[in-house]
Design a protein that fits this description.
By secondary structure, the protein is mostly helical. The chain has 19 helices and three strands. Strands 1-2-3 form a three-stranded antiparallel sheet.
C-alpha cells in the first residue's frame, strides 16, 4: 500500500474530476441551465483555462518532487527541458502553436550552445531526414512558384540540429516523459467532458454516437483546444502512450509510473478514439497495447512464444469474424476516389510528377479527365491523396517514392539497431498512419513527427558516448562526451 497510494493519486484524482464534471454537466442539463448550444464555445474556453492551469500545476509539482534531478535549479539544461515539454505538449494543438513552440525550443537550444560552448555529433539517422528534405526542395523547381526553400521543411533541419546543441541526462529525460504523459491524460479527460457537454446539447445517447457514423464527430470533442483532427491528435496521444509503457518498464526509483496510471491512460485513449470515431486510432491503440504486452511478457516471463501464438490466433479470429467490417474500415468512398485519381495520375506521370505541394492541382486535373470517378455527395473538396506513399509519387513520381522509402528504411534500421522500444513502436504507428494520411505533407504532421522522433533518438543515445566539439575549437577532432 505504501507504493500504490503514492503512485496512483494522480490517476484517481483525474478520474474523479472527469466523473464529477460529467455529473455536474448532466445535472445542469436536466435543470435546463447553461447546457445549451449558445454556451458551447464559452464552456470550451473554461476547459481550456482548466487545461492550462493543470499544465502549470503539473510542471511545478514535478519540478518540486524531482528537485534532486534538476539541480542546479536555474541551469540552462532545465530551461531546455521546459521548452522541450512545451514543444511536445503544444504539438497537439493547431500548427501555429506548434511553430511557436518549436521556435521557443530552438531558442533555448541555442542558449545552451552559447553558454556551454558545446555541440554534439549528430546521430547518423538524421542524414536520412536531411536527404528527404533536400529532395523536397529540389521538387520545387518545376512548380509555378519556381525553385525555393519550402518553409515547412525547416523543421526537418532545425529540430535535429537543435538536439545536437545540448545533452540531458537519463533521469531528466524520463521526467519529461512523465510530465508530458500526465498532461496528455488531462487533455483527454477535458476532451471527454467537452464531448459529453455536446452530446447532451445534441440530445443523443452515447451508444448511438459510438455505434453510428456521425458527421465530423471530432469537431464536438477537440474544438475546445482550437484543433480537432482526430488522427493527428492521436499521433501525440499514442507517442505519449508508448512513453508511458517505457516508464513502466524502466521502474526508475525516482521517475516512476504505476500500472494503474498506465491502464487509466489506455482507458482514456480508448474513450477518445471512440468518441472521435477515429478508425486508425482504434487500430493503432490495439496494436500498441498488444505489442507492449508481448514485450512485457518477453522481459518478465518465459512464455513469450506461447503469448505470440495466442496473439496471432486472436488476431486471425477477429479478422475472420469481422471481415466485412474490416474492409469497410480500411477503405471509405472518399479515399477510394482519391486513390483512383492518384494512381491514374502516377501512371501518366511516373518520373516527374506535379511538383512540391501540387497534389490538389494534379488531382483536380485528373478528376476532369476521369468522368467515371465519382465522389460521395457532400464530400470535402479534393485536397491531397490521404496516403503518404501515393502523395509523394503524385508530387515527385517514382523517384519520390524511392526517396521516401530510403528515409523510412534508415529510420527503421536505426530503431532496430538501437533496440529502442520507443523508436520501434513510434515508427510502426507512423507507418500505419501513412497509409491513410500524409503526416509529412502538412506542418502539423511534420512538427509532431520530428519532435517525438528527435526526442526518442535523444533518449536512445543518452547512455552512449557521443562526440562533443567545443565552440572555441569546432574544427578540432572531437572526443567522447
Amino acid at each position: 500500500m505504501k507504493l500504490s497510494l503514492k503512485h496512483v493519486y494522480f490517476s484517481l484524482f483525474l478520474l474523479l474530476f472527469t466523473i464529477l464534471a460529467m455529473v455536474a454537466v448532466y445535472r445542469l442539463h436536466s435543470t435546463q441551465v447553461f447546457v445549451t448550444k449558445g454556451n458551447v464555445s464559452f464552456f470550451g474556453n473554461i476547459l481550456l483555462l482548466i487545461f492550462a492551469s493543470s499544465f502549470v500545476l503539473i510542471v511545478l509539482s514535478q519540478i518540486i518532487f524531482a528537485r534532486r534531478i534538476l539541480r542546479p535549479f536555474l541551469s540552462v539544461e532545465n530551461f531546455v527541458s521546459l521548452s522541450l515539454v512545451l514543444l511536445l505538449v503544444l504539438s497537439v494543438f493547431q500548427k501555429e502553436v506548434g511553430i511557436y513552440a518549436t521556435g521557443f525550443f530552438v531558442l533555448f537550444a541555442l542558449v545552451s550552445f552559447f553558454v556551454r560552448g558545446k555541440i554534439y555529433t549528430l546521430n547518423k539517422v538524421y542524414y536520412f531526414i536531411f536527404q528527404y528534405a533536400v529532395f523536397l526542395m529540389a521538387g520545387t523547381i518545376y512548380t509555378p512558384r519556381g525553385f525555393h526553400f519550402p518553409e515547412m521543411t525547416y523543421t526537418f533541419f532545425l529540430l535535429p540540429l537543435s538536439f545536437s546543441l545540448f545533452r540531458l541526462n537519463k533521469q531528466t529525460l524520463l521526467l519529461i516523459l512523465k510530465i508530458v504523459f500526465r498532461i496528455m491524460a488531462i487533455y483527454m479527460a477535458v476532451s471527454v467532458v467537452y464531448w459529453w457537454f455536446n452530446l447532451l446539447v445534441l440530445n443523443m445517447s452515447a451508444l448511438e454516437w459510438i455505434t453510428m457514423k456521425f458527421p465530423n464527430a471530432y469537431d464536438y470533442v477537440g474544438t475546445w483546444g482550437h484543433y480537432s483532427h482526430p488522427s493527428y491528435i492521436s499521433l501525440v496521444l499514442f507517442s505519449t502512450l508508448i512513453s508511458g509503457f517505457y516508464l513502466n518498464f524502466k521502474k526508475d526509483n525516482i521517475v516512476a509510473l504505476s500500472r494503474f496510471e498506465l491502464i487509466s491512460y489506455i482507458g482514456l485513449c480508448l474513450g477518445f478514439v471512440l468518441v472521435t470515431e477515429s478508425r486508425i486510432g482504434l487500430v493503432e491503440l490495439i496494436i500498441i497495447v498488444l505489442i507492449s504486452l508481448l514485450y512485457y511478457i518477453r522481459l518478465k516471463t518465459p512464455h513469450f512464444k506461447l503469448a505470440l501464438v495466442v496473439a496471432v490466433l486472436v488476431g486471425v479470429v477477429i479478422l475472420m469474424a469481422g471481415e466485412n467490417k474490416v474492409s469497410r474500415f480500411i477503405r471509405d468512398d472518399v479515399r477510394k476516389a482519391d486513390y483512383t485519381l492518384a494512381i491514374n495520375y502516377i501512371k501518366e506521370h511516373p518520373v516527374i510528377g506535379a511538383g512540391y505541394h501540387q497534389q490538389r492541382v494534379a488531382l483536380e486535373y485528373q478528376d476532369k479527365k476521369m468522368s467515371d470517378v465519382t465522389r460521395p455527395v457532400g464530400a470535402p473538396p479534393i485536397t491531397y491523396t490521404h496516403n503518404q506513399f501515393l502523395g509523394d509519387m503524385v508530387q515527385f513520381g517514382i523517384p519520390g517514392l524511392i526517396c521516401l522509402l530510403i528515409m523510412l528504411a534508415g529510420l527503421i534500421w536505426n530503431a532496430l539497431r538501437s533496440r529502442s522500444y520507443l523508436l520501434q513502436l513510434f515508427m510502426l504507428i507512423y507507418l500505419f498512419f501513412m497509409l491513410i494520411e500524409e503526416p509529412l505533407y502538412a506542418q502539423e504532421g511534420i512538427t509532431r513527427f520530428m519532435a517525438f522522433l528527435c526526442f526518442f533518438v535523444h533518449i536512445s543515445e543518452c547512455d552512449k558516448p557521443v562526440r562533443v566539439h567545443r565552440l572555441r575549437n569546432l574544427f578540432s577532432k572531437g572526443k567522447p562526451a
